[in-house]
């Protein structure tokens, strides 16, 4: 079998370790390289079951044998990796969240030179939930207040989560609204009555919560809650491998998990 040669960025991180394990278990893929942050004690450490793979800070060394890079790091790290992958035609699977508009534009531009998967949540369940939210928002466009509540572990550095923001975008699009104009990120003090055109966000951080998202449609006399709860990071890792398989025959272009799961209209 022709195995996919996949490198992992942030190989010593929570998702990086999970991805290395998933690659070790995948019959159609092999860990072909590993990247770490320069200065980290992880540099030079051996990872995975494939012989000779060590965590490298130097991109040329870490990516020498790879056709794919899976990157769950930080926006500044991903953008550095992005430039290298675009230049060398390495397919890039981006799970990192917290990009600003300039970062997102750089990803779109790089997709003209390499195939890129960019999704704030690679789990099948969350991506099906996005589809359910589109339907719910269209059916409850009047008379329902929409609030998005997310909870994550104490180490998470960005808020709201990339998934919560994506949920907001999907709902705003379905309602013909612009999320930048209607999002309310937290409330404090005398806020006045709720504006029905807004989409509210609430963020919880604590302990080892892997990732919970609930969208509340609160009407008169009833409320609907659509929730997804992660109980293992394995679902993100298996989604990332599925994304690699999807990119196998793509040379360029920007894709998301809705493409992988054929959930686009
Ligand atoms: N799309 C999805 O399905 C999912 C997305 N995520 C996202 O993935 C990202 C990583 O999450 P998680 O694994 O929990 O985070 P961790 O902090 O556990 O891991 C991050 C890794 O990236 C490395 N890193 C940090 N900064 C840089 C940099 N500037 N350049 C290169 N490498 C860097 C870290 O190195 P060091 O340890 O030395 O700091 C570490 O190895 C987050 O943005 C998170 O939101 C998470 C889960 C699922
Ligand atoms: O940082 C995390 O852990 C997660 N981040 C992603 C996000 O910001 O949505 C995906 C998942 O919720 C876990």
Number of domains: 2
**What is the CATH architecture assignment of the largest domain?**
3-Layer(aba) Sandwich
Average pLDDT figure: 97
> Outline, from the CA principal axes?
elongated
Strand arrangement, major sheet: 3-2-1-4-5-6-12
Strand content: 15-25%
**Unreliable residue runs:** none
Main beta sheet: strand number and arrangement? 7 strands, parallel
Write down the CATH class of the largest domain: Alpha Beta
Query: How many alpha or pi helices?
Result: 9
Explained architecture:
By secondary structure, this protein is α/β, with parallel strands linked by helices. It is built from nine helices and twelve strands. The chain has a seven-stranded parallel sheet with strand order 3-2-1-4-5-6-12, with helices on both faces. It has a five-stranded mixed sheet with strand order 8-9-7-10-11. Helix 3 (75-88) packs parallel to helix 4 (101-110) and helix 5 runs parallel beside helix 6. The longest helix has 16 residues, at 124-139. The protein is elongated, with a radius of gyration of 19 Å. The mean pLDDT is 97. NADPH dihydro-nicotinamide-adenine-dinucleotide phosphate (NDP) binds next to helix 1 and helix 3.
């Amino acid at each position: 079998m022709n195995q996919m040669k996949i490198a992992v960025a942030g190989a010593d991180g929570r998702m990086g370790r999970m991805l290395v394990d998933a690659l070790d278990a995948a019959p159609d893929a092999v860990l072909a390289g590993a990247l770490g942050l320069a200065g980290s004690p992880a540099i030079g450490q051996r990872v995975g079951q494939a012989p000779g793979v060590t965590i490298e800070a130097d991109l040329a060394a870490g990516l020498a044998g790879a056709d794919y890079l899976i990157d769950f790091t930080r926006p500044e790290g991903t953008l550095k990796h992005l430039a290298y992958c675009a230049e060398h035609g390495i397919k890039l699977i981006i799970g990192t969240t917290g990009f600003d508009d300039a970062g997102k534009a750089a990803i779109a531009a790089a997709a003209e030179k390499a195939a890129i998967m960019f999704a704030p949540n690679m789990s099948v369940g969350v991506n099906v939930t996005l589809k359910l939210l589109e339907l719910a928002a269209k059916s409850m466009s009047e008379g329902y207040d929409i609030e998005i509540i997310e909870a994550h572990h104490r180490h998470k550095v960005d808020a709201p989560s990339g998934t919560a923001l994506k949920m907001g975008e999907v709902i705003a699009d379905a309602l013909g609204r612009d999320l930048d104009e209607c999002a309310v990120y937290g409330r404090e003090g005398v806020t006045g009555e709720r504006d029905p055109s807004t989409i509210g966000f609430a963020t919880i951080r604590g302990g080892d919560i892997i990732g919970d998202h609930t969208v509340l449609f609160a009407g008169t006399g009833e409320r609907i809650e659509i929730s997804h709860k992660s109980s293992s990071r394995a679902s993100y890792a298996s989604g990332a491998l599925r994304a690699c398989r999807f990119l196998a025959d793509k040379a360029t272009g920007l894709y998301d998990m809705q493409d992988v799961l054929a959930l686009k209209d």
